[in-house]
Amino acid sequence: xxxxxxxxxxxxxxxxxxxxxxxxxxxxxxxxxxxxxxxxxxxxxxxxxxxxxxxxxxxxxxxxxxxxxxxxxxxxxxxxxxxxxxxxxxxxxxxxxxxxxxxxxxxxxxxxxxxxxxxxxxxxxxxxxxxxxxxxxxxxxxxxxxxxxxxxxxxxxxxxxxxxxxxxxxxxxxxxxxxxxxxxxxxxxxxxxxxxxxxxxxxxxxxxxxxxxxxxxxxxxxxxxxxxxxxxxxxxxxxxxxxxxxxxxxxxxxxxxxxxxxxxxxxxxxxxxxxxxxxx
Length: 280
Hints:
- By secondary structure, the chain is mainly beta.
- The chain has one domain (4-277): Sandwich (Jelly Rolls).
- It has three helices and 19 strands.
- Strands 4, 5, 8, 9, 11, 12, 13, 14, 15, 17 and 18 form an eleven-stranded mixed β-sheet that branches.
- The chain is globular, with a radius of gyration of 17 Å.
């Protein structure tokens, strides 16, 4: 995720979110190039930090990008089954702090090319106005320290296909929203409210982020632990509001956990994407 700040007006607490920075991104690519990415499992396998796993178009990758910066020591791991991404069990434990910051992003169901975590079976990038269908479906169970984590879909729209060095927008779709995240979302520029996939969404943008960060949060801040979300409809809404043009490239997305503090766990009962380009 890109840098951004969550501010609480009452406490003046700043929570800084920093994305999988270029150095870590390069490590991920180097690991894949070196053949260290674990491939489809024939039995359960447990991965730790900075170890890509892939099966078909899906990936997993645990990236505690802020742990070293803030001198934090914690644990996190994902147990992956042969049915990956279904069956993945994620656990994490980090210290409680007076001014908590996002520690990392734990990707449990990446699809396509998400920030250079390239899958075993690549997908073809496409400009968003040339996509016929793009939906994501999931069934998750999760629990953890209150205000200790977010669960999101996260991805970047780019100027060119697979343009990991030319991000135009980041899009985040929250399916579990911490209190601090909700305050941040409500504090930035409002785009509007819209109902997509039976959910009323609050939609905002942080134009000061690099790239600008577009955020979809359920208006009632409820969890969306299971369901199908129409990402194409979200793109269409953003085009109608003049926030994106439609010629930006979609390359893939990720489903995962932003860790903040404390303990938590998440189980992927199922996760999938349906992606059809107009030219297909």
